[in-house]
Amino acid sequence: MAQDYTPVPAAKENMGQPIARYEALQKVTGAKIYADDLPVPGRPAYAWMVTSGIAKGRITSIDDSAALAVPGVQMVMTHENRPPLGDAKTFSSGGLAITELAPLAGPEVHHDGQPVALIVADTFEAAREASFKLKIAYTEDTPTATFGSPGATQKNLKEVNPSFEPIRFNDAGAALAGSAHTIDSEYYTPIQHHNAIELFSTTAYWDGPRLVLHEPSQFVWGLKNAAAEQLQTDSETVRIKSPFVGGAFGSKAAMTHRTALAAMASKQLGRPVKLVAMRDQGFTHSGHRQETRQRVRLGCDASGKLTGYDHTQWEFTARTTPYSNGGLEKTAAMYDFKAVKSDNYVVQGDRNVPTFMRSPAEVPTVYALEAAMNELAAEAGIDPVEFRKMNDTRVDPVKGVPYTSRSLNQCLDAAAERFGWSRRNPQPRSMRQGEWLIGWGCSMAMYPTQMSPSTARVTLKRNGTASIEVAAHDVGTGCYTIAAQAAGERLGIDPTRISVQMGDSRLPPGPVSGGSISTASVTSAVANACDRLNERLGLPADATADQRRAAIAAMSMPELDATGSWFPAELDQKAVDALYEGGVRIVGGSTDKRAMYAFGAEMVEVRINERTREVRVPRIVGAFAAGHIMNPRTAHSQYLGGLIWGIGSALHESTEIDHKRARYTNDNIAEYLIPVNADIGEVDIIMVPEVDDEINVLGVKGIGELANVGTPAAITDAIWHATGIRIRDLPVRIEKLL
Amino acid sequence: MKPFAYLRPDSLTHASQLTEEPSAIPIAGGTNLLDLMKLQVETPESLIDVNKLSLSEIGDEGEGLRIGALATNTATAAHPRVRSDYPVLARAILAGATQQLRNKATTAGNLCQRTRCYYFTNIDQPCNKREPGSGCGALDGIARLHAILGASSQCIATYPGDMAVAMAALGAEVEIMNAGGETTRVPLEDFHRLPGDTPEKDNILESGDIITGVILPAPVKGVQLYRKVRERSSYAFALCSVAAIVNMEEGRIGDIALAFGGLAHKPWRDKRVEEALKGTEPSLKGFDEAAEILLEDAQGYGENDFKIPLTRRTLKAVLCEATGMDT
Q1: What is the dihedral of CA A583, A586, A591, A597, to 10 degrees?
Q2: Which residues on chain B are in Cβ contact (under 8 Å) with A657?
């Protein structure tokens, strides 16, 4: 059933070459160097982060005598003896810290897994042994775990984020009241954790006043500035090295406590310090996707045209830092709604702070919208693919701005043809094989095209090679290779003759690798640098390869470089300047000028055992259109990973929390389930050609967070089609189908 | 981690003497023990590495089969006689863990693997199994994977394995050498115990006991099935599993053996269920009645309430398949 191999996708119209990423062989043979593998000067000491075993309370005493007595232990740092730290701003205040809570700030415990001490020793084993000998006494209060727990407090998002505006577009209530068909459903999405294979590590060492940090990061310029701010040192003296990132999915964008802890310990001991948060600590250390509740009311007229759309989201967040994803302005742009109302609340409890996780706002909100679309289509007796097509729009109905390009209907047609959707009997429970019930479901996938300012330096050498320097990040996506392809296309050089440096804050600043912005932003800056180089060579933009070769050979200097920069049309040069201070300026989705989104369509077959209610997914088809595809091979990998992620999001992934103790329980990857090979059948990906001349220099839309959006709605609809049961509470589990 | 001594005895007698020491734990594959040591759940003073002992043979024992204590799960599942005469065992083993883990895991180690209860594996949480008298966190906490049969107010953990469930259905015996050098055989279904007031004891092993092997009786006729129900297709513990050996005689159920995993502190075998089915013509009604007997005393703890209907459904699915009844 499953394919034996993934064929290399051929380049179609408006696509670059499907070349293998440069580091592919090194990665699969384990030769590639990641932040924690980088050599350090001198013998490092090893740190163990002691984390709180209670979720709420206060440390009443600390006895470190037995811990310090373990041979090799160099220090025990707690709130009683840690050096002073500066404030570190969180994202919502323009900084990079994950939490407003400073490391080892005081005796109060605000959440399960809060770091309460750092033990540093000559060996990892000694630090670990000492951690069991450190005596910390607490007084314990009753914590608030999640929705419905005693002590949970609800606020309108506006109260914690003044820039938030609820949507009031025409009269949604009246539109719904006058609709021929309506649905009113409530959905739940669970806590999820990124669980990248690479753990959260920081290695710190000082060279006089200069601090070097080896840390896997999605934003080295941001981390450099944020670490300097917290450690009260000049950002020019801080260097971040993060050559490759072993998976991030949002969890390595923010600055966590461990950065300052390792840096302080290294300064105090005068030697490098290595700190790794273990797998279970990762669950409380670097954020998660918060659980949400979503209520959707949706209506259409007798012909199936959408009328009113009313969506309310509740996000569960931390008391210390009310992180929120929001996102309802994006779902409001998806179809030709005549009236829209939306509200967003945050509910706070005694939990660690959530953070970005692959398609942060889109995963819960689009799931709810698309599940509601499927329910309404069934209510109106219209095929759900046809229902989406007939409600397509060329403008964001709320903002009234046009899409720069939108190919949802082409994606729906392509996926339907490949899947054989026309053979679907709309009746639930109409297909079975032996004891397995079979169902088909569909969903739209979307992701806003987001962009950020970027710089890049391109150097051309007389021997016909070139190099690119940009402090962007390869989080496993193939970013190095794509940057070379962008320059290769512009300079007429084979990309294999272009070397690329990334992941080092000494390089010209690039954007945060979040929000699927890297390819669009970095290639635009690289293209700009190449254009400047062509100007310096006296070449017109349409010069032939021969002309270019002749011009390079005639260069008087051995090499010629140019630094380019780029910012999206909504911003100005100040946004580029802000990059040097670690500032994040992201533009995307619907602005006052235009609506920018990539789209896809997903169709899935599920099989459900009539008796045991096990759910299996033998095949899934995804068709995606996202402007110019730089590299169909790496794009294919992103879509493939996204669809598998989506299957896991629907059927497997969920962090369980003990409601009484407000602690995560399945905090390891044996029991935090993600799909294994045996769960994945046929995954069929179609790249629908799309041209977008307006969106950015190369017409690129981000794709890393597209394919996993919507999949849970397709799967729950297929489950309904197989069984007649609507599951509105993810993940789908056996007990919900009994 | 806590420092420990590491010893590699090369004789059974020596190994037995060494494990007589308090806080000595034998180690073979280490696939479970090392994880628990890293978490400080297990804190042995000494690890007795038994891998030098010659206990990995699999060979005939009369008409039956003897599986050495150190035979790997991979070797057992692939053994020609296991595959032809005891397929329920091969299926159960292959339903567990991953290829890499099965390459390391051994017969005795697998019998002794400890529960996956979240409260047992987290030293900041209460757990009577790990720390007698500290309470049971699962009773008012996350109990989705927990027992519905034979639990106590002290502990609702399950035995997590698959191999032993098949062995229980096969009527296997565990061979144990004690500190005095005497060898005894214990029916596998009596090897694990119920938690009662001493949940810290998973099984009947005493200090100085060494498991030397498992003996399967002569093969029996009939269909052998292992059905494991879980959300993920592989590398996940059973919500419920059934090992079934069913011999049909002229349209009626003849000899039958059923064992269940994921439901209790031990592989669960209830001979009343087998007796009720024996000699009957297969029917959904009859299967339902058998399930009623099995689940008569079943008790859920909230999150795992669904295991009661799920077990009924799984048993019926297995019996339909084993008896060739068309559903």
Answers
A1: 180
A2: 142
Helix (H) or strand (E) holding B211: strand B210-216
Note the helical H segments in A83-219.
Answer: 124-133, 157-160, 172-177
At CB < 8 A and 24+ separation, what contacts does A540-547 make?
Answer: A543/A492, A544/A492, A545/A492
Instruction: Tell me the two tokens of residue A45.
Output: 């000491």
A→B interface, C-beta within 8 Å: 53-54, 125, 128-129, 132, 435, 609-616, 651-652, 656-661, 663, 665-666, 670-671, 673, 675-679, 731, 733-735, 738
Tell me which chain A residue has its CA closest to the CA of residue B118: A665
pLDDT at A34: 97
ipTM above 0.85, yes or no: yes
Partners of residue B118 in chain A, C-beta under 8 Å: 656, 665-666, 671
Is the pLDDT at A152 greater than 80? The verdict is: yes
Residues of A catalogued as catalytic: 705
Confidence category of residue A544, pLDDT binned at 50, 70, 90 = confident
pLDDT band at A7 (very low <50, low <70, confident <90, very high): low
Residue among A553, A559, A562 at smallest CA distance from A530: A562
**Cross-strand pairs, B60:** B65
CA distance B260 to B311: 9
A523-527: average pLDDT? 96
Q: CB B232 to CB A54 under 8 A? A: no
DSSP A427: S
- Contact of B195 with B151, CB cutoff 8 Å: yes
* Other CB atoms within 10 Å distance of the CB of residue B34: 14
The residue in chain A having the minimum alpha-carbon distance to the alpha carbon of residue B316 is A611
Distance from the Cα of B255 to chain A's closest Cα (Å) equals: 25
Q: Which residues contact B81 (CB under 8 A, 6 or more apart)?
A: B58, B60, B65
CB contact under 8 Å between B327 and A610, yes or no, is: yes
Q: Is B30 exposed, middle or buried (0-12, 13-18, 19+ CB in 10 A)?
A: middle
**Domains in chain B and their CATH numbers?**
223-323 (3.30.390.50)
Cβ contact (<8 Å) for B232 and A670?
A: no
Residue A6: predicted pLDDT = 60
The strand pairing partners of A310, in sequence order, are A297, A341
Vertex B117: Cα angle to B115 and B123 (nearest 5): 105
Residues B80-99 have a mean pLDDT of 97
- Of A391, A379, A389, the C-alpha closest to A184 is A379
Contact residues on chain A for B40, CB-CB shorter than 8 A:
132
What mean pLDDT comes out for the span A240-269? 98
**Owner of token pair 């032809």:** B84
Domains of chain A and any CATH numbers: 1-32+387-450+585-738 (3.30.365.10), 454-566 (3.30.365.10)
In order of A87, A375, A650, the CA distances from A727 in angstroms are: 45, 11, 10
The H-assigned helical ranges of A327-459 are 328-331, 362-380, 384-390, 408-419
> How much is the pLDDT for A5?
53
Q: Write the DSSP symbol of residue A140.
A: E
**By CB neighbour count within 10 A (0-12 exposed, 13-18 middle, 19+ buried), where does A616 fall?**
middle
> Residues B186-206: pLDDT tens digits?
999 999 999 999 999 999 999
- pTM for this prediction: 0.97
**Contact (CB, 8 A) for A135 and A141:** no
How far is Cα B103 from Cα A737, in angstroms, rounded to an integer? 35
Distance in angstroms (rounded) separating the CA atoms of residues A97 and A120: 23
Which contiguous run of DSSP H or E holds residue A92?
none
Phi, psi of B142 (to 5 degrees): -85, 110
The answer to whether B314 contacts chain A (CB < 8 Å) is yes
